[in-house]
Amino acid sequence: MLVPSDMLSAQSKLLYQLNKFYGERVQVRKGNIAKTVREVCKVVQDVLKEVEVQEPRFISSLNDCNGRFDGFDVVSPTEFEVVLYLNQMGVFNFVDDGSLPGCAVLKLSDGRKRSMSLWVEFITASGYLSARKIRSRFQTLVAQACDKCSYRDVVKMVADTTEVKLRIRERFVVQITPAFRCSGLWPRSAAHWPVPHVPWPNPNLVAEVKTEGFDLLSKECVTLQGKQSSMEGDAWVLDFGEAEDRLLQGGCRGKCLSVLKTMRDRHLDLPGNPVTSYHMKTLVLYECEKHPRELEWDETCLGDRLNGILLQLISCLQCRRCPHYFLPQLDLFKGKSVSSLENAAKQCWRLTRELLTNARSLEKL
């Protein structure tokens, strides 16, 4: 099929603009974040070292692997999350029966094994390992560590939350979340994945992702709030960060997400935080299903993919629902106010219209 020359030139102009935007805006954002991450990790490592002295069961897993920190996640340029991997989950069964959306529980496989558990005092009378009890103990330890560590002048605990959050140099907030890594295991609530009849991802990649497994995090679960479930405090939140990162390798997927995160920080960082970088990541994964062929993720298609994802984001904001990629019954907009979602939809539409109608829009975006 012959493509009109003006269409080709429009596409190459857009690609030129996108590459320029990537070089001038995205790379600068990445560079600044990398510097911040190094600075923040020094402080967090020092605090966690102090925690470990007081309580050897909480061993810091925040290690530098060639400039990348294991379990470190960038939420925004000033907000970060550190996942602290706990060890020895052995005497517990992983129970995921769908009664706690987005969560699961860890139950003693045999009552007699209670004394064998490293976490014996955090096990409830019913035999569940309580996420909240572990987090509460960890919070006390971190508060004490902040007073003792060598960075005590620049770090303090954020009050009024059950989460373990640090404010560093009054500019950055880091949440530290105790977690268990579940490798070689796949939750029943995500058993529908991959979606039948969708040729992406290929079977080898699916096998890799399922072997990678998922994490169980001790954090407040928005989906359970208001449910009055007695299990609420004991439940662990399912997290698929590693699996998602693995799926987004190859083609311009990573580049696409980096551009979207930069646009989010510049234009969609709105009151009530309706649009997060995690929403962007989720929509890129759905876009991969809609465009399963590798050639659709060639650099030349980057503009089309970005437009598709932004239009999908507008649709989600207007419907006030954004399903989690692996757990579609989970709404990632839960807890966001209607007005903040409406405001974000308008703002996102302005941004998308500008990109679609103005060939040079990226110069000023």
Brief overview:
The chain has 8 helices and 11 strands. It has 365 residues and is an alpha+beta fold.
| Number of helical stretches of at least 4 residues | 8
Biggest beta sheet attributes: 9 strands, mixed
Low-confidence stretches: none
- Structural class based on helices, strands and sheet pairing: alpha+beta
Q: Give Rg in angstroms.
A: 22 Å
State the share of residues found in helices, binned by percent. 40-55%
The total of beta strands comes to: 11
Q: Strand portion, in percent?
A: 5-15%
Ends: how far apart? 34 Å
The averaged pLDDT comes out at 92
How would you spell out the order of helices and strands? HEEEEEEHEEEHEEHHHHH
Shape: globular
Domain Mab-21-like HhH/H2TH-like: 252-349
Family: Belongs to the mab-21 family.
Pfam families: Mab-21, Mab-21_C
Domain Mab-21-like nucleotidyltransferase: 69-250
Question: Care to describe what's here?
Answer:
This is Protein mab-21. Belongs to the mab-21 family. With 365 residues, this protein is α+β, with helices and mostly antiparallel strands. Helix content is 42%, strand content 14%. The protein contains 8 helices and 11 strands. The strands form 2 sheets. Strands 3, 4, 5, 6, 7, 8, 9, 10 and 11 form a 9-stranded mixed β-sheet that branches. It has a two-stranded antiparallel ribbon with strand order 1-2. Strand 1 and strand 2 form a beta hairpin. Helix 1 packs across helix 5. The protein is globular. The relative contact order is 0.12. The mean pLDDT is 92.
